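Reviewer 2 asked us to include a model.

Predict the structure of this chain.
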Amino acid sequence: MGATTIIVARDQNRGEQTLYEIQKESKNENVDLFLCDFSSEKSIRDFADSFKNRYDRLDILVNNAGLMNHKRIVNEADIELTFAVNHLGYFLTTHLLLDTLKENSQARIVVVSSDAHLNGKIDMNNLMHKHDYNGFDAYCDTKLANLMFTYKMAENLKGTQVTINALHPGVVKTRFSVTDRNSDLTFPMGIISPEMGAETQIYLSTSDDVADISGKYFDNKQIISSSPISYDKRLADKLWEKSIELTNLQ
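Predicted model (structure tokens):
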């Protein structure tokens, strides 16, 4: 579509390879690469600063970083990595870029969640599974957190020109898969192509049909209902306040 596209990668070599492939396939040279480790608050803040130093506008933010681990790993702030990347990464990145988004006549935030949220729970006393870690359970919890974040942010953005919506991409054929060694559960390899998995993200990013829609959950370009607990505003408020604390936001 001719847009200037910024991709954010953890690994420079893979990022550069992806940038080259996008330019070659799209025949659009306006592709830029930034490096960021979304498990690290410092790395996210450095990325946001670098982006704002280079660009003065942002039309679309797609939160799509994801992680699932076999075993419990923590970052330098003692935050469990799945929670750090999948939820706090979205939360902090969005907040740091929000002023830039608000400067546009219309901007969009797209949050990649998952139907795995149906198995999720938010236990404020055990957000990071310190003593009962199971990789798939931790992942499901973060996908539920993505939806709670989306719905509350949509409320906060009322009266602005910024929309936010979440989506289930489908079970996509990528390298994102895991067999949890602590259980008999295998997270399945994908059943749809990456191109198909990207369709709803692109739809929410670009379609005029959703220009004025905010705070919804989509699957296959259609609005659907998420789990009952995902609409629990009191729990969402508690998660929001804890997320502010863990990301050191003012």
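Strands lie at 5-9, 31-35, 60-63, 107-112, 162-168, 178-179, 186-187, 217-219, 222-224. The first strand starts at residue 5 and ends at 9. We have added this to the supplementary material.
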